[in-house]
């Protein structure tokens, strides 16, 4: 009997080991988690014709967004007549339709089927190894590993011009890479050169942002020495470029949820993941235009700089005291936005900010005729708090701090076709060069504190 139990136990151990190995094999062979799908989901647009309808829209936003699973692509403002764009899940379509009808609001459909546009974007991906800059195709969107591989090739191919910058590490352990472009020419001391920073991808789903930033980065390095205008600008500035700010979120848009916006850090006490990194800066944090609900897309986080990615970027900008311009690229709306987002009041440097904006937008429009609006964030698009460019302006005294909302105005929204990457890059680079010249002609060293 003892032998029988011994055999039984030995067999159970053996079978358990086999089961563990089998499960491990299945896990290794299992496909990646399925992407969230958006079949038959629409993006609708509507606007308030009066203050009563405006109140109804704001109630829909604040009270019913999370219960209904609504995704606001353009947030409500305080202006009657200014439209909003909302992605509506199929399960909420009837309720939203009834709500708007009761308020006398007539929506229009901007996107008939979100999944169709998602499929079109993924069909255009190249997904090939990047071992040199020649391997990187600027006409398509790229996953994070491809972008990081491209950035790592730059110092090898342009050793006297480009250095790789490790900005920090994300919550999930990914490196946030940037580059510094600085030539030995120009001023005798590189420390004397004004710094110029631009980044993209703070909101994960805004793919055109990193793509446009990468296009402009390539123009700066690949045409240095052959294009006299670019050569002069690079010789005169220290240029810092971070193509993907929110690396965890961006990666998740490729392998989990194409419409993901936030970071990927879990929120204690909630099943909802992530914080809006552009509501997490320590500038009027947790005020207007941000939510305390972890399930909301504009959740401001557990505290200022609670997101390691936000803190890493902020620390890097702060540490480079020569930076006189900060640009944070987003999509969509075709807007060039200056401080402030947290108040309708004009900042002390409003005149200079609008002057640069006007000149940059004129240069952008001159390329293809693309129309941009410019002005302070709060009145031009909608109120926000805890934003990147308000923090760089208020806390660091960087006068020329801007958020730029790239193409388009809603036909595709966050799902801009890849064939618009190069045109977006071309027109935005024209504007960026004007901004660089403006900084050089109108030096504005930091003055802290500004407010």
What does this structure look like?
Helix 7 packs across helix 14 and helix 11 (350-368) packs antiparallel against helix 14 (421-441). Mean pLDDT is 92; it is low at 1-31. The protein is an alpha/beta fold. The chain has an eight-stranded mixed β-sheet with strand order 5-6-8-7-9-12-10-11, sandwiched between helices. A four-stranded antiparallel β-sheet has the order 2-3-1-4, with no helix packed on it. A hairpin with a 5-residue loop joins strand 5 (162-169) and strand 6. 39% of the residues lie in helices and 15% in strands. It is built from 14 helices and twelve strands. The chain is globular and about 65 Å long.
Quickly give the structural class. Answer: alpha/beta
Q: Averaging pLDDT over every residue, what do you get? A: 92
Radius of gyration, CA atoms, in whole angstroms: 24 Å
Order of helices and strands: HEHHEEHEHHEEEHHEHHEEHEHHEH
Number of strands: 12
Low-confidence stretches: 1-31
* Rough outline: globular
Number of helices: 14
Reported for the largest beta sheet, the result is: 8 strands, mixed
- Cα(first) to Cα(last) distance is 85 Å
Helix content: 25-40%
Percent of sequence in beta strands: 15-25%
Lateral arrangement of strands in the main beta sheet: 5-6-8-7-9-12-10-11
Structure keywords:
eight-stranded mixed sheet; four-stranded antiparallel sheet; 451 residues; alpha/beta
What's the layout of helices and strands?
Layout: H1 2-29, E1 42-46, H2 51-63, H3 65-68, E2 71-74, E3 84-88, H4 93-102, E4 108-111, H5 114-123, H6 144-157, E5 162-169, E6 175-181, E7 195-200, H7 208-222, H8 228-236, E8 238-242, H9 247-255, H10 308-319, E9 323-331, E10 335-338, H11 350-368, E11 373-376, H12 377-380, H13 388-394, E12 400-406, H14 421-441
Helix pairs in contact: 7-14, 11-14
């Amino acid at each position: 009997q003892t032998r029988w139990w011994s055999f039984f136990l030995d067999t159970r151990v053996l079978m358990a080991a086999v089961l563990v190995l089998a499960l491990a094999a299945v896990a290794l062979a299992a496909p990646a988690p399925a992407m969230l799908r958006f079949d038959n989901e629409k993006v609708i647009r509507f606007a308030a014709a009066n203050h009563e309808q405006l109140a109804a829209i704001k109630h829909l936003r604040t009270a019913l967004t999370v219960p209904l699973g609504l995704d606001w692509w353009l947030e409500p403002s305080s202006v009657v007549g200014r439209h909003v764009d909302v992605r509506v899940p199929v399960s909420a379509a009837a309720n939203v339709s009834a709500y708007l009808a009761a308020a006398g609001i007539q929506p229009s459909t901007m996107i008939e089927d979100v999944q169709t546009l998602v499929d079109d974007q993924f069909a255009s991906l190249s997904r090939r190894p990047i071992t040199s800059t020649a391997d990187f195709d600027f006409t398509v969107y790229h996953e994070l590993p491809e972008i990081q591989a491209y950035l790592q090739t730059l110092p090898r191919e342009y050793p006297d011009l480009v250095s790789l910058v490790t900005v920090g590490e994300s919550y999930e352990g990914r490196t946030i890479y940037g580059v510094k472009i600085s030539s030995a020419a120009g001023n005798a001391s590189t420390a004397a050169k004004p710094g110029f920073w631009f980044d993209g991808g703070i909101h994960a789903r805004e793919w055109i942002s990193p793509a446009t930033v990468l296009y402009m980065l390539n123009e700066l390095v690949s045409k240095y020495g052959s294009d006299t205008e670019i050569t002069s600008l690079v010789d005169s500035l220290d240029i810092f470029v971070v193509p993907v700010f929110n690396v965890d979120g961006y990666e998740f848009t490729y392998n989990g949820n194409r419409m993901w916006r936030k970071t990927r850090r879990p929120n204690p006490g909630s099943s909802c993941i992530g914080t809006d990194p552009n509501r997490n800066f320590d500038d009027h944090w947790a005020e207007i235009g941000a939510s305390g609900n972890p399930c909301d897309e504009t959740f401001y986080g557990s505290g200022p700089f609670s997101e390691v990615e936000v803190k890493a970027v902020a620390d890097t900008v702060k540490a480079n005291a020569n930076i006189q311009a900060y640009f944070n690229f987003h999509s969509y709306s075709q807007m060039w936005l200056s401080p402030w987002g947290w108040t309708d009041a004009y900042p002390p440097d409003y005149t200079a900010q609008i002057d640069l904006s006007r000149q940059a937008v004129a240069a952008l429009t001159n390329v293809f005729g693309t129309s941009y609006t410019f002005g302070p964030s709060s009145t031009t698009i909608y109120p926000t708090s805890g934003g990147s460019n308000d923090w760089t302006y208020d806390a660091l005294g960087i006068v020329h701090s801007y958020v730029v909302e790239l193409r388009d105005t809603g036909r595709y929204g966050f799902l801009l076709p890849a064939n618009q990457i190069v045109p977006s890059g071309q027109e935005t680079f024209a504007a960026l060069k004007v901004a660089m010249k403006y900084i050089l002609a109108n030096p504005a060293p930091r003055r802290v504190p500004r407010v």
